[in-house]
TrEMBL record:
This is ADAMTS-like protein 1 isoform X2. Residues 1463-1499 form the PLAC domain. The keyword Disulfide bond applies. Residues 1-24 form the signal peptide. CDD domains: Ig. Keywords: Disulfide bond, Repeat, Secreted, Signal. The gene is adamtsl3. It comes from Betta splendens (Siamese fighting fish). The lineage of its organism: Eukaryota, Metazoa, Chordata, Craniata, Vertebrata. Residues 887-982, 1142-1239 form the Ig-like domain.
Length: 1499
């Protein structure tokens, strides 16, 4: 159990409290409320940032701060043990109040701890807490509990769901501290409350990962990459590359629109390639990376949260038809970074100089230095500026004050111009400039580059420092045509689509949002409305009206691209009717980083919300109106209050080519200047209709659209198309149009494709491909899956139950492979011995036959390669004339299988052995006519040379603690006689180890002798693996079944059970090799494998069980007392193993029972020598699903009556058996995977043939018939409180072992009567009240652990000496079976070293020096000379990096020379670089003129 060692002792104590509470009650689950230590109303206000878990200074408990003294708090105590050992837990610290009154503040604070990832096998923490309640009854039943995640109401309550039933229960009010609140968050539950945890694992921290995956990062370590791809089917290719997404990229999203399909290729840094074909929606995995693929009717969406485990190449497979478009976006890590170097050597040797650092481009993936161009590729990368420091400040000795200038020789090039990378362009479009710095630098002999005066580089032109950039046009807004008005009369709305188009004609971002044209405006239809549209019922309003209302609803950002509208701006007018705007963006939420990214508008589905709307604040003053004021001298009382007025014109009927517009007439309130109901105005005074010409200019070319075609699909979602052409009307009066080029019309072009029939299809049958035929010949069956599916309006497909599809289901199976089977080889037996005396051989004989026929065919009809060819020795008798008999090895043709762990085993050569690891094995080689001291042993044809394998003087081989590497063929050699033993090691999950030599040679012995190669090493592997699976099947059954118990004095079939409660079973099963050959032959003929293997296991356990009475019996699990036998009881299901065909458990002895009863397990004969009251034929079977039991007598169905009937367990009960009951009783167990049968013969001796039907109620010997009396002991009856029968258990004993698995026992007794007056009765009387609690259980299941290590790795670490490097190995903690366990289980044991020095020729490195150069001066104590110093291999001379040679001091690379003083008064050159000084015109400078007197004399 993984959870058992992941919980701390405090957690285990809590589990123990729950268990005690459960057993203290009468079977119902009781959950003890956790005692609350303090109030934690203000926990979130406590600063919790200390996660180092350092031990607190004891003095801090008494040293109080000023605040503590003021508030009378004691100092904080030490931190408690962490609530978890991995995965993030919580620890707390307490303090006490020193005052008699209440102290202000808290007495507890928390911090996070154990913030390391749990091992993969640990499982989920919340799931462990749910599974801890599996042995607690809930509503009288046991359940396997699964966790319920992300509860929005109370995420810190332990809510679990019962597997299979869907029952959701809150098993505890609080989860354990450290449990995550939500699956996609680091927030954790502490004391039942969800606390915020940042990505820095600090409580209360708001730190989050940026898009690059860096906690609290600024996003500078990655860059956003966007791209657009369009397929070109005309190229003739079948596939094309969309994008290459590099290793460690995150938040990848690709959308393909069109008929083509996506697929992904991968390539790791080591060059390993992989491929992933995605065809159905779901989650896929490639190179430790999860990919979420969604396939819709019109597009494919691929999302990868990342980080990518390799370089991914996304490709598109062409499927014909129209071209597809792929848009993608991802965050790419910047893998090449600048890294600052160490300081280079000083510029001068004395007198004060300077030294600089540089920067080198470093590849984070390979850890190598690369050329600078890789770092220049990323504009975000800024090369660090060199750092400058002074050096060699000591004064020069005996100097004339001249500082040595580095010479320009072979290792010192001339000064040169060096430029920095171009800066980012000043403008992203429309033409900008970018600059760079250009400086003069010089390089010394060590390669140090330093800036110097510009005049030194003037011999060559200086590079430009400015250049134009981004000269292309900026993106502009392009508005599509307006939609029709949303009303048929009066005032309504109309909409249009506005796109941002760049210079390439692609829809991208980058346009100025303040200049975006509005997408919604009012429109007026010149048809009078007879009734206000607002007074119409809601159902009569057009569809657009409902959509317009829905647009105003608040929308939040989700993980799907969604239009997110911003707040409305202020109204454009302070009075009257105006308009207001808002910003609407297409945005998506990146889940783990919780950041929002902007996307192009076409990434979002549905209609984009309106960006403008009309608004009205207050009416304008009367002076702002038009006309309608009263004339001077007239009284308003005499005039009507309302009158007609013109208010503007309708929109022009044509956008070009000449149209008309009508004046709008409204009824106006003269006082308020507001529009009123038209009924308030006198209709006879309504002014006449006014029309005027408008838009008289000629029309430009425009798009002309045709009628939509019929939809391509009748339901789900289909497409319809239309023709779109660019046309032009030559004149205003012309009714004909002329076609033009598409370039002549204004973009964007109307869409020629539109979705249609977007409603759900009715359910229909969908068939999958046929599976492979069940047989290759003579008639087989192939099956296929037929599913009922429904295609929805969003393009997705929903799988439904079969009852939803109305028509008849298509065929699910059909016949196949009806042709006749070819002939095959059939083994007939062994030939006679080749000699009549002495040692000979026998050959395996076989004939060619057709399946099921006895006629022998010509051997040519069968394949010669498949013919069995085996030989084994034979010995009939000794020869009379033999002088000295040949040596003979007494081999045993046995196949030995170790069934359980044991300290030591002895095996005889001649067969096969399948053993568990860590077992000591002795291989014996019994011989005749040969001295044992001369016996030789080989493994795989080679002499034994392993440290833990030894040979004794008696010819034995002893292998100490068997390892997986010990598997192989062991050969005993006695003179010319040889016998082999094929040794296998059973590994984890019952897999068999294969020797390395056979792995390298494809399963055959490599360099051994021919007889070793002839051994069929894997001949019986299949059978043994099936036997081991069946053993695990039975043993794993202990988690859900228990052995049925019988009477008080009945030991059932476990008389040999140890006191510890463990069930005994044979240590080794030994099968005859000939028997296994028969099974192999039977399996090759197509017989059922499960039945043959189960029968073989039954034979082996019956004949070879040592002292145990039941060798194939399900042992009990801990707390199986509340579970009982699930073998035959209806409704109880076994969950512990996969589907299995039935197996009937066979026992060796007749079970013990009271004198008047008899218990016989099926498979054993039942001989009744004297009359008994009842006979039980017990039949126990295993299988998944649970098998059903049926009984037959003498091959016919058994008829049941009052005397012969079935027990609830499925066993057969016969009351007062007589001669008429004699016969062969057969128990058959069946489920859908197969059946198994086992029989018992019943014989009754000495019976007079009387039975309970004679009417007396009493038979011979005074036995009482159960139907005639109610007072017999066999069927005792009672009434009222006297019938209160119950099981009573004593406490469990201490465990027999501290680790590795032990056992506990307890006493189980039957009591009757009410509490206080109960009395112990026979145990069989309680059998009807429920299952008998178990009296044994396993304990201390934590495996015994020790340190293990892998072999040492290659010797290729850092060089630490001459021919010496370091090598590593992996050290881990493992149990006795070699399974890895957490490190803490090996704490306290000496841990082996994981690092050591090693000898390697790769570190045969040394400093290699070149010749000294010519001295730079002939005199004057200022000359020096240099040489090349490199780190190179001693033998090959190949250069290496200098740090590999740093274990030895580096030789000097320069030295002084020609230090003799120069003569006085002579004008001569003291350096050989004076010719360069003259060419560079440096003679005017005093320091050069004095050194180059002769060369500079005529300048």
């Amino acid at each position: 159990m993984t959870r058992s060692y992941l919980w701390t002792p405090a957690v285990m104590l809590l589990a123990a409290f729950v268990e005690v509470a459960v057993w203290a009650d009468d079977g119902a689950a009781v959950f003890i409320r956790e005692f609350t230590l303090i109030r934690r109303d203000h926990l979130h206000e406590e600063p919790l940032h200390d996660s180092s878990q350092k031990a607190e200074d004891p003095s801090s408990r008494t040293a109080r701060s000023e605040e503590d003294r003021d508030t009378l708090w004691d100092a904080w105590g030490s931190w408690s043990e962490c609530s978890r050992t991995c995965g993030g837990g919580a620890s707390y610290s307490l303090r006490r109040c020193l005052s008699s009154r209440t102290c202000e503040g808290q007495n507890i604070k928390y911090r996070t701890c154990s913030n390391v990832d749990c091992p993969a096998e640990a499982g989920d923490f919340r799931a462990q807490q749910c599974s801890a309640h599996a042995d607690v009854r809930y509503q009288g039943q046991y359940h396997e509990w699964l966790p319920v995640y992300n509860d929005p109401d109370n995420p810190c309550a332990l809510k679990c769901k019962a597997k299979g039933s869907g029952l959701v229960v809150e098993l505890a009010p609080k989860v354990l501290d450290g449990t995550r609140c939500y699956t996609e968050s680091l927030d954790m539950c502490i004391s039942g409350a969800c606390q915020i945890v940042g990505c820095d694992h600090e409580l209360g921290s708001t730190a989050k990962e940026d898009n690059c995956g860096i906690c609290n990062g600024d996003g500078s370590t990655c860059r956003l990459v966007r791209g657009h791809y369009k397929s070109q089917h005309a190229s003739g290719k079948t596939e094309d590359t969309v994008a290459i997404i590099p290793y460690k990229s995150r938040h990848v999203r690709l959308v393909l629109k069109g008929p083509d399909h996506l697929y992904v290729e991968s390539r790791t840094l080591q060059g390993v390639k992989g491929e992933l074909l995605v065809d159905t929606s779901g989650q896929y995995h490639l190179e430790n990376t999860s990919l979420d693929y969604q396939r819709l009717s019109d597009k494919e969406v691929l999302r990868i949260a990342g980080p990518l485990g390799a370089d991914f190449t996304v490709k598109v497979q062409f499927s014909g038809g129209a071209d597809s478009v792929v848009q993608y976006i991802y965050y790419q890590p910047i893998v090449h970074r600048w890294r600052e170097t160490d300081f280079f050597p000083c510029s001068v040797t004395c007198g004060g100089g300077y030294q600089l650092t540089s920067a080198e481009c470093f590849d984070l993936r390979t850890g190598r230095v690369v050329v600078d161009q890789y770092c220049h590729y990323y504009p975000e990368n800024v090369k660090p500026k060199p750092k400058l420091q002074e050096c060699n400040m000591e004064p020069c000795l005996a100097s004339d004050g001249y500082k040595q200038i580095m010479p320009y020789d072979l290792y010192h090039p001339l000064p040169r111009w060096e430029s920095s990378p171009w800066t980012a362009c000043s403008l992203s479009c429309g033409g900008g400039i970018q600059s760079r710095s250009v400086s003069c630098v010089e390089e010394d002999m060590q390669g140090t580059i330093t800036p110097t005066d510009e005049w030194k580089c003037l011999y060559s032109p200086k590079a430009a420092i400015l250049q134009p950039c981004n000269a292309f046009d900026c993106p502009t807004w392009l508005a599509q045509e307006w939609s029709p008005c949303t009303v048929t009369c009066g005032q309504g709305l109309r909409y249009r689509v506005v796109l941002c188009i760049d210079h390439r004609g692609l829809h991208t971002g980058g346009c100025n949002p303040t200049t975006k044209p509005h997408i919604k405006e009012e429109c007026l239809v010149t048809v009078p409305c007879y009734k206000s549209i607002d007074s119409l019922p809601v159902e009569a309003k057009p569809v657009w009206h409902k959509q317009a209302i829905e647009l105003e609803e608040e929308v939040s950002v989700t993980e799907e691209p969604t239009f997110i509208p911003g707040p409305w701006q202020q109204c454009s007018r302070t009075c009257g009717a105006g308009s207001q705007r808002r910003v609407v963006k297409c945005q998506v939420l990146l889940s783990f980083s919780q950041t929002v990214a902007d996307l192009p508008d076409d990434e979002c589905e549905g209609v984009k919300p309106a960006a403008t709307q009309p608004c009205y604040r207050t009416p304008c003053s009367a002076g702002a109106g038009q006309g309608g004021g009263s004339k001077k001298g007239e009284t308003p009382e005499r005039e009507d209050l309302h009158d007609w007025e013109y208010e503007g014109f309708t929109e022009c009927s044509e956008s070009c080519g000449g149209g008309v517009q009508e004046a709008v007439v409204i009824c106006l309130n003269k006082q308020t200047r507001e529009a009123a109901d038209q009924r308030l105005c006198v209709s006879s005074r309504r002014p006449p209709q006014l029309l005027q010409d408008c838009q008289t200019q000629a029309c430009p070319p425009r798009w002309e659209t045709g009628e939509w075609s019929s939809c391509s699909a009748t339901c789900g979602v289909g497409l319809r198309t239309r023709t779109v052409a660019c046309t032009h009307r030559p004149s205003r009066d012309s009714n004909q149009t002329e076609p033009l080029r598409p370039e002549d019309c204004r973009h964007p072009k109307p869409s020629p494709v539109q979705a249609c029939n977007r409603f759900d299809c009715p359910p229909a049958w969908h068939t999958l491909d046929w599976e492979q035929c069940s047989q290759s010949c003579e008639g087989g069956v192939q099956r296929r899956r037929v599913l009922c599916k429904q295609r929805l309006a969003d393009g997705s497909v929903l799988e439904l139950p079969d009852t939803f599809c109305p028509s008849k289901s298509p065929a699910k199976q059909q016949p196949c492979a009806t042709h006749e089977c070819p002939p095959q080889w059939v083994i007939t037996g062994w030939s006679q011995c080749s000699v009549s005396c002495g040692n000979g051989i026998q050959r395996l004989q076989s004939v060619c036959r057709k399946r099921g026929e006895a006629q022998t065919l010509d051997p040519k009809n069968c394949s010669l390669k498949a013919q069995p060819s085996r030989i084994h020795p034979c010995y009939l008798r000794p020869c009379d004339n033999s002088v000295k008999p040949d040596p003979v090895i007494l081999a045993q043709r046995k196949v030995s299988i170790q069934w359980k762990k044991g300290k030591k085993l002895q095996l005889v050569v001649g067969g096969y052995a399948y053993l568990l690891p860590w077992t000591t094995v002795v291989l014996r080689c019994p011989t005749r006519h040969f001295r044992k001291v001369h016996i030789r042993w080989l493994k795989e044809g080679k002499p034994l040379s392993l440290p833990h394998v030894s040979t004794t003087p008696l010819g034995y081989v002893k292998i100490q603690q068997l390892h997986a590497s010990d598997a192989g063929v062991y050969t005993c050699v006695a003179g010319r006689a040889r016998e082999h033993l094929a040794l296998h090691v059973i590994g984890s999950k019952q897999k068999l180890s294969v020797p390395e030599s056979r792995l390298r040679s494809g399963g055959q012995a490599n360099a051994g002798t021919a007889d070793v190669a002839s051994v069929l090493f894997n001949q019986y592997d299949h059978i043994v693996e099936r036997l081991l699976e069946l053993r695990d099947f039975v043993q794993n059954g202990k988690d859900i079944i228990a052995e049925p118990q019988v009477g008080k004095n009945n030991m059932s079939t476990l008389e040999g059970e140890s006191a510890g409660g463990g069930l005994s079973s044979p240590l080794v099963l030994a099968a005859d090799a000939h028997r296994l050959d028969q099974i192999v032959h039977s399996l090759s003929e197509g017989q059922r494998g499960e039945q043959l293997i189960a029968q073989l296991l039954s034979e082996l356990t019956v004949t070879q069980g040592e002292s145990n009475e039941s060798t194939l019996h399900p042992p009990e699990a801990a707390e199986s007392a509340t579970r009982g036998p699930a073998l035959h009881k209806p409704g109880v299901k076994a969950h512990g193993f996969g589907p299995r065909s039935p197996v009937i458990i066979q026992h060796r002895k007749v079970g013990a029972a009271p004198p008047s009863e008899m218990l016989v397990h099926v498979g054993l004969p039942a001989l009744l020598e004297k009359p008994v009251a009842s006979l039980e034929l017990r039949c126990e079977a295993l299988g998944n699903p649970e098998p059903s039991l049926t009984w037959t007598k003498n091959g016919k169905e058994l008829l049941f009556n009052r005397r012969v009937g079935l027990l609830p367990s499925g066993s057969l009960r016969i009351w007062v058996p007589s001669k008429a009951d004699e016969g062969l009783y057969t128990c058959t167990a069946r489920n859908r995977f197969g059946s198994a049968s086992l029989s018992s013969w019943l014989q009754v001796a000495g019976s007079k043939g009387r039975n309970c039907d004679q009417g007396s109620g009493v038979v011979a010997n005074g036995l009482i018939c159960p139907e005639r009396t109610n007072g017999s002991e066999a069927a005792e009856l009672c009434y009222g409180q006297a019938c209160a029968l119950r099981w009573q258990t004593d406490p469990w004993s201490t465990c027999s072992a501290t680790c590795g698995g032990g056992s506990q026992t307890r006493s189980v007794r039957c009591f009757r009567g009410p509490g206080g007056r109960s009395a112990e009765v026979a145990s069989r009387l309680c059998l009807g009240t429920g299952r008998r609690p178990s009296d044994t259980r396993r304990c201390s299941l934590v495996p015994c652990a020790r340190w293990g290590s892998t072999s040492w790795g290659e010797c290729h670490g850092q060089c630490v000496g001459p021919s010496t490097a370091t090598q590593h190995r992996h050290v881990y903690c493992q149990d006795t079976n070699g399974t890895k366990v957490p490190y803490r289980m090996c704490s306290g044991l000496h841990r082996p070293s994981a690092l050591r020095n090693c000898s390697t020729e790769a570190c045969a490195l040394q400093w290699r020096v070149g010749q000294w150069t010519q001295c730079t001066a002939t005199c004057g104590r200022h000359g020096f000379q240099s040489r090349l110093v490199t780190c190179a291999h001693r033998h090959t001379g190949r250069a290496s990096r200098e740090h590999q040679c740093m274990w030895r001091a580096r030789p000097p690379s320069w030295q002084r020379c020609n230090v003799a003083p120069c003569g006085r008064g002579e004008c001569r050159d003291s350096t050989r670089y004076c010719e360069k000084v003259r060419e560079l015109e440096l003679c005017p400078l005093p320091q050069f003129k004095s050194r180059c007197c002769h060369s500079c004399r005529n300048t």
